[in-house]
Design a protein that fits this description.
The protein has nine helices and 16 strands. The protein folds into two domains: about 110 residues, Urease, subunit C, domain 1 (Roll), CATH 2.30.40; about 290 residues, Alpha-Beta Barrel (TIM Barrel). The strands form three sheets. Strands 1, 2, 3, 4, 5, 14, 15 and 16 form an eight-stranded mixed β-sheet that branches. Strands 9-10-11-12-13 form a five-stranded parallel β-sheet.
Length: about 425
């Protein structure tokens, strides 16, 4: 039996139809974070911060508030697995941070603004992989911000990559164990280690390792003893190998960067697949007039993409992260552009969407409550205008965002109208 609108009576879990304060969300289609296809005519029931039921072509409960989104596709809130709230996404984020680093309240205010920018674009969870003095920990639990998974300052060598964030330690086993313990004491969710240099830090080189292998192993062992996962920034082939040998849980960038190009990975692709390590490929840029890619990156990009494709074809566990904040083409709402890039060159639309929803949630330790639209999961929901499986730019046409059941204000510039 159906009503005159074409909906059949709702049949969901016991007691839902009798409870006040429910929110019913209706749309044209739903991507659940896992499957390859869209579910038509979805109805999601939200009770507080939690999804309590998901059905199709049914009427809402009689006492529910209804959010009707005709023509929209519903998705799990997006997860950016590599972001830096502390950087402003400007022309020189390091100098900008240095100018305000003496005023921690000002830094926190700017970080909160960055988080709100991400949230309004549908990014309901961020993994902050490098902040200043653990300031991202102050932002956790706020209703106006994404869920934040935080590493605190990355562990690096004296004058090493991102040393200006306050995480430099002597490259000794005792020093890195103490640094890991300090992050655990602060309440960090993950430990970030700079296994190689990086292009943001003069004096470091991406192809060179920063820590001796035994020291890197001590950092991982110390973190695992404290129940913390370890993510390694690793560009150069040696740092990738040493990070795998140490038993890290995640690898970021993995460009196989060499002094004059991109290395052949050899056995490392098979090792990454066998270990199950989460491999974060770094993609995504918004178009900015006059902004250009550095020659070093531009000449290496084809080789990097080739190796990413080999990882994907071999069955590696790939994440899509943005490194948001580190330059002018990477604002904190860049993730929809990254998803489009990953879909086009590597994963396809469904694969790219899984990489920023269910796969990302699992890598962040949140797989039991985020990254899917299913009963019992957090009510992190993104509604976009159109079908992202056939038009991935639909992700930039945001109709609504819910973060833990709270509807987010959409008063932000529409990047799709900026000809992005």
């Amino acid at each position: 039996m159906v009503d005159r609108r074409g909906y059949r009576p709702i049949v969901i879990i016991s007691g839902v139809t009798e409870r006040p304060g429910l929110l019913a969300i209706r749309a044209a289609a739903l991507f659940d974070g896992v499957t390859e296809t869209l579910q038509p005519d979805p109805l999601i029931i939200v009770d507080g911060v939690t999804i309590v039921a998901v059905d199709s072509a049914v009427a809402p409960p009689p006492h529910a508030r209804v959010l009707d989104l005709p023509g929209a596709t519903l998705l799990p809130g997006l997860i950016d697995t590599h972001m830096h709230l502390v950087f402003d996404g400007g022309a020189d984020p390091v100098t900008s941070l240095a100018a305000r680093a003496g005023d921690e309240d000002a830094v926190v205010t700017a970080m909160a603004a960055a988080g709100r920018t991400a949230l309004r674009a549908g990014v309901t969870t961020v993994r902050d992989l490098g902040d200043l003095h653990h300031l991202s920990l102050r932002l956790r639990g706020r209703d106006d911000l994404p869920t934040i998974v935080a590493s605190g300052p990355p562990i690096t060598t004296p004058a090493g990559h991102c040393h200006f964030l306050g995480g430099e330690v002597e490259p000794s086993e005792d020093a890195v164990r103490a640094a890991v313990a300090e992050r655990a004491d602060h309440g960090a969710d993950v430990v970030k280690v700079m296994a190689s240099g990086g292009r943001m830090t003069p004096g470091t080189r991406q192809e060179l390792s920063q820590f001796p292998p035994a020291v890197l192993r001590a950092a991982v062992d110390g973190a695992h003893r404290l129940g913390l996962p370890v993510v390694a920034h690793a560009h150069g082939t040696a740092s990738i190998r040493e990070s795998l040998d140490a038993g890290v849980d995640g690898l970021e960038h993995v460009t196989f960067w060499s002094a004059d190009g991109v290395d052949e990975p050899g056995d490392l692709i098979g090792r990454m697949v066998q270990s199950g390590v989460a491999v974060g490929i770094t993609v995504g840029n918004v178009p900015v007039p006059g902004a250009t890619t550095s020659p070093a990156v531009r000449t290496r990009t084809p080789g990097i993409i080739t190796n990413f494709r080999r990882l994907h074809e071999a069955g590696a566990r790939l994440l899509v992260g943005t490194d948001a904040g580190i330059e002018i083409t990477k604002p904190h709402d860049v993730l929809p552009f990254a998803i489009a890039q990953a879909a086009a060159v590597l994963l396809g639309p469904a694969g790219a969407l899984r990489a920023v929803t269910s796969t990302a949630a699992a890598a962040c330790g949140l797989g039991s409550r985020k990254g899917r639209i299913a009963p019992g999961f957090d009510a992190d929901i993104l509604a976009v205008d159109g079908n992202p499986l056939t038009d991935i730019t639909a992700l930039r046409r945001v109709q609504a965002v819910l973060a833990r059941g709270h509807q987010v204000n959409q008063d932000v510039p529409d990047r799709d109208r900026r000809n992005g």
